[in-house]
User: Which sequence fits this backbone?
C-alpha cells in the first residue's frame, strides 16, 4: 500500500488514490469492522489572502474525525504535507463526546512532517477528535494538499482516510510583500484612514497588480488583434466613400453612419445576445475582437477620408502630369501622405478603442474591468478599480504623449521650417550663389 | 478628381471640326507662323501642339477662354504673357487635360485629345507632357531624389538603379546634387522648383508646360530657376510653353511671345516684334504697366 498520504497536483491523482485506499481497506479489514472516519480537514484563509490559502504563510489547519463502533483509538498519527512545517506546541487538541467537551486529553509530539497525538484514554464510538494546528505552514509552492496518516485502535495500526484536498496557492514575492506591508505601522495608519484604506489599500494594490494582469493582457490582446482589421476595413470604407461610384459611396455612408451613430454598448449587446439566438456560438473573446474591429473601422474610415481629402489638389495634378493613373496616384502619392497626417488621430482612436474594451465586461468577457469587479466584490474594497485605472493609464499615457509629439512635429514640418540646418537668409544667399 | 463631363455651349459657333488633313494644316500653320517666331523650321515639319478655337467655361457661366488659336512647333520656346485672369494658365492646363476643354480642339502631334479619351490614353498623353506648377507640388513624403524617381519607376517602369542614375543626373543639371536626400520641406522655394523641373525633365517628355514657375518665389530665388529653364531651352532642345510674368526671360529666351487677354490670343510674334513694336493697344498698355 502507499506509504505517502500526501498528494499534490492533479485532483484525479488524489481521487484515484482515495479510491485505491478505500478498496485496500475494504479488502484488508474483516467485514463488520469499523474505522475512525476522517470528517474534515480545513485550512483557514491567511490574513489578507482574500479567500485563499497561501503556502509558506501561517494558517490554521483543523482536522476532525469521529470514532465509530468498535473503535478504541489510542493515538493518531497525522501525516502533514511534505515541505510544510508546523509548531506542535501550538497544537490544540479537543475531544468531544456528542456536543460536550470530554475530559480526554491528548499530547502532541512532532516528528518530521508527522504529528503523533496520544490520548489519555482510548476514544470509543461517538467521540469526535479535533486537532487545530494553529501555526501550520503549507508548502510554499502551493497546490492541492491532503492530510492522511494512521491511527492505533485496539492495538492495531490502521490507515487513516485521506482528507478532502485543500487548495493552496503558491507563496510568491507578492505574498512576501503583502506580508511585509501588513506589519508596517505606516500601512496600518494609512489604512485606518477611511478614504485611503478604501481606495488605495497598499496590500490590495500589490495583490491586484498581479491578479489583474491576465485581464489587462486580454484587453491588450483584444485591441491589438482587432485594430489591424479595423484599419483595413476603415481604409476600404474610406476609399469607398471618396469613390466616384454612387453605390459604393452610399454603402460606405450607411455603414459609417450607423456604426458611429449608435452606442458601442448597444452594438455589443446586439452581437453577443443576438448571435447565440441564431445558434451561432463564437468564443467571447473572438466575438469581442470582431465587434471592436467593426466599430473602430467606422471611425477610422472617417479619419482616413478626412485625411485623403486634406491632401491638396496639386498633389493629384502633379501625379497626373507624370502620367500616373488613379490607382497609382492613390497608392504612391496620396495614401503615404494620408498615413502621416492621420497617425495622431488614429492613435487617439486607438486609445479610445483600448478603453472601450471595458464595455465587453458587460457581456462576460474576462477582461481587466471584469477582473477588477470580481476582486472588488470579494474584498469589498475599491482598490482593485484604482489598480485597473493604473493598468489603463500604463497604455494610454504614453500614447497620449506620442500623439502630442507627432502633432508638434507635423505642425513644424507644415510650417515648412522643418529640420532645416541653415537660417533662411543663408539659404537665400546660397541660392543666389548657385544661380551665379 | 478630374471631371470627365463634357459641356457644349448651345450657341458656340466655334465648335467646328479641326482641319483633318494634317499635311495641309501644317502647311497653313507654317505659312502663318513663319514670320512670328525665331524657330528654325525643318522641311515638312508638323506642329507638336495645335490649339483651334479652344473654349473653356467654368460652371457653365464663367467663360475663361473664348477662342484660343495657337500652334507650337517642336523645339520652340513659347512664352505666354498677359494680365491675371486672361486665361493663360487655363489654356496651359487644357493642353494636358488637367482642365477639360468645353469646346474647340487640341491636337498633340496631330492626334486629337479633345474627344472622349480613355483614362489610359490620357495617362499616356501626360507622360509626354511635363508640367511645372506655380506651387511646385513636390511630393512632400519623398526626398528630392525620390520625387524625380517616382514617375520613372511607376510610370515608365524603369528599374530603381536606372531611375536613380537618371534622377541624380537631372538633379545635377539643376544644381541640386547635394540636396538629393533632402525632403521638400528642407528646401527653399527656388530649390523646390528646380527639383520640380528635374522631375518633369526626367520623364523625357517632348513638351514641358511651365505654369508661372517663378510667381510663388521670393525675388532673390527667381534667377536660379530661370537659369535652369534657360539652359533647358538652349541646350535641351525641349519644346517649352511658359506662362510667365518674367519679361526679361521672355525677351531673352523665347522664340515667340504670345500675349493673351480676355480668353483670346491678342497678339503674338518674336520677342522683338511684341516688346519693341506691339501692334495692339492692349499689348502696349500691358507691357507699359509692367515696365
Assistant:
Amino acid at each position: 500500500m502507499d506509504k505517502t498520504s500526501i498528494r499534490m497536483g492533479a485532483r484525479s491523482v488524489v481521487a484515484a488514490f482515495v479510491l485505491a485506499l478505500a478498496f485496500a481497506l475494504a479488502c484488508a479489514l474483516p467485514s463488520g469492522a469499523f474505522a475512525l472516519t476522517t470528517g474534515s480537514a480545513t485550512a483557514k484563509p491567511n490574513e489578507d489572502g482574500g479567500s485563499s490559502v497561501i503556502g509558506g504563510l501561517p494558517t490554521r489547519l483543523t482536522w476532525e474525525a469521529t470514532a465509530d463502533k468498535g473503535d478504541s483509538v489510542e493515538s493518531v498519527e497525522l501525516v502533514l504535507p511534505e515541505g510544510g512545517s508546523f509548531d506542535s506546541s501550538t497544537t490544540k487538541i479537543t475531544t468531544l463526546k456528542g456536543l460536550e467537551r470530554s475530559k480526554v486529553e491528548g499530547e502532541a509530539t512532532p516528528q518530521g512532517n508527522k504529528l503523533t497525538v496520544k490520548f489519555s484514554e482510548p476514544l470509543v464510538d461517538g467521540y469526535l477528535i479535533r486537532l487545530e494546528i494553529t501555526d501550520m505552514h503549507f508548502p510554499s509552492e502551493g497546490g492541492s494538499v491532503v492530510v492522511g496518516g494512521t491511527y492505533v485502535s485496539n492495538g492495531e495500526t490502521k490507515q487513516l482516510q485521506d482528507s478532502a484536498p485543500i487548495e493552496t496557492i503558491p507563496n510568491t514575492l507578492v505574498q512576501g510583500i503583502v506580508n511585509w506591508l501588513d506589519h508596517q505601522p505606516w500601512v496600518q495608519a494609512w489604512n485606518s484612514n477611511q478614504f485611503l484604506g478604501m481606495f488605495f489599500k497598499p496590500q490590495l494594490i500589490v495583490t491586484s497588480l498581479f491578479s489583474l494582469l491576465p485581464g489587462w493582457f486580454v484587453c491588450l490582446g483584444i485591441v491589438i488583434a482587432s485594430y489591424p482589421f479595423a484599419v483595413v476595413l476603415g481604409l476600404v470604407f474610406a476609399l469607398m466613400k471618396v469613390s466616384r461610384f454612387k453605390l459604393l459611396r452610399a454603402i460606405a455612408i450607411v455603414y459609417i453612419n450607423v456604426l458611429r451613430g449608435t452606442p458601442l454598448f448597444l452594438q455589443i449587446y446586439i452581437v453577443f445576445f443576438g448571435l447565440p439566438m441564431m445558434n451561432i456560438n463564437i468564443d467571447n473573446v473572438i466575438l469581442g475582437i470582431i465587434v471592436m474591429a467593426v466599430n473602430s473601422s467606422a471611425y477610422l474610415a472617417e479619419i482616413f477620408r478626412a485625411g485623403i481629402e486634406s491632401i491638396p489638389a496639386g498633389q493629384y495634378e502633379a501625379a497626373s502630369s507624370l502620367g500616373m493613373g488613379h490607382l497609382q496616384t492613390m497608392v504612391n502619392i496620396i495614401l503615404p501622405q494620408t498615413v502621416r497626417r492621420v497617425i495622431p488621430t488614429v492613435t487617439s482612436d486607438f486609445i479610445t478603442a483600448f478603453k472601450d474594451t471595458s464595455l465587453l465586461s458587460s457581456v462576460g468577457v474576462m477582461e481587466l474591468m471584469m477582473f477588477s469587479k470580481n476582486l472588488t466584490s470579494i474584498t469589498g474594497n475599491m482598490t482593485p478599480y484604482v489598480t485597473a485605472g493604473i493598468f489603463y493609464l500604463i497604455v494610454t499615457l504614453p500614447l497620449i504623449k506620442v500623439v502630442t509629439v507627432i502633432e508638434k512635429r507635423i505642425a513644424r514640418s507644415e510650417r515648412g521650417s522643418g529640420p532645416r540646418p541653415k537660417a533662411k537668409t543663408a539659404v537665400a544667399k546660397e541660392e543666389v550663389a548657385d544661380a551665379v | 478628381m478630374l471631371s470627365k463631363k463634357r459641356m457644349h455651349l448651345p450657341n458656340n459657333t466655334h465648335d467646328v471640326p479641326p482641319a483633318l488633313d494634317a499635311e495641309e494644316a501644317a502647311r497653313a500653320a507654317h505659312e502663318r507662323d513663319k514670320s512670328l517666331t525665331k524657330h528654325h523650321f525643318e522641311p515638312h515639319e508638323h506642329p507638336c501642339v495645335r490649339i483651334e478655337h479652344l473654349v473653356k467655361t467654368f460652371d457653365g457661366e464663367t467663360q475663361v477662354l473664348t477662342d484660343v488659336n495657337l500652334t507650337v512647333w517642336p523645339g520652340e520656346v513659347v512664352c505666354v504673357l498677359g494680365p491675371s485672369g486672361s486665361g493663360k494658365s487655363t489654356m496651359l492646363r487644357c493642353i494636358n487635360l488637367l482642365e477639360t476643354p468645353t469646346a474647340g480642339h487640341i491636337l498633340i502631334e496631330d492626334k486629337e485629345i479633345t474627344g472622349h479619351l480613355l483614362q489610359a490614353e490620357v495617362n499616356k498623353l501626360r507622360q509626354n507632357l511635363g508640367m511645372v506648377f506655380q506651387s511646385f507640388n513636390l511630393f512632400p513624403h519623398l526626398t528630392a531624389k525620390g520625387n524625380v524617381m517616382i514617375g520613372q519607376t511607376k510610370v515608365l517602369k524603369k528599374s530603381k538603379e536606372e531611375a536613380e542614375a537618371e534622377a541624380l543626373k537631372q538633379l545635377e543639371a539643376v544644381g541640386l546634387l547635394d540636396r538629393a536626400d533632402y525632403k521638400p520641406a528642407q528646401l527653399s522655394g527656388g530649390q523646390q522648383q528646380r527639383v520640380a523641373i528635374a522631375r518633369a525633365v526626367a520623364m523625357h517628355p517632348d513638351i514641358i508646360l511651365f505654369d508661372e514657375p517663378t510667381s510663388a518665389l521670393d525675388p532673390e530665388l527667381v534667377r536660379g530657376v530661370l537659369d535652369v529653364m534657360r539652359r533647358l531651352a538652349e541646350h535641351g532642345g525641349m519644346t517649352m510653353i511658359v506662362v510667365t510674368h518674367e519679361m526679361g526671360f521672355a525677351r531673352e529666351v523665347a522664340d515667340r511671345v504670345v500675349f493673351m487677354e480676355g480668353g483670346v490670343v491678342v497678339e503674338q510674334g518674336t520677342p522683338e516684334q511684341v516688346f519693341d513694336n506691339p501692334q495692339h493697344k492692349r499689348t502696349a498698355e500691358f507691357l507699359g504697366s509692367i515696365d
Summary: Chain B touches chain A at residues 1-2, 96, 98, 119-120, 123-124, 126-127, 129-131, 133, 135, 137-141, 150-151, 154-155, 175, 183, 185-186, 188, 190-191, 196, 199-200, 203, 218, 220-221, 223-224, 227 (CB under 8 Å). Chain B has a mean pLDDT of 88. Residues 276 and 284 of chain B are 9 Å apart (CA to CA). The beta strands of chain B are 49-58, 62-72, 77-81, 103-108, 111-112, 129-132, 207-211, 239-243, 256-261, 264-269.
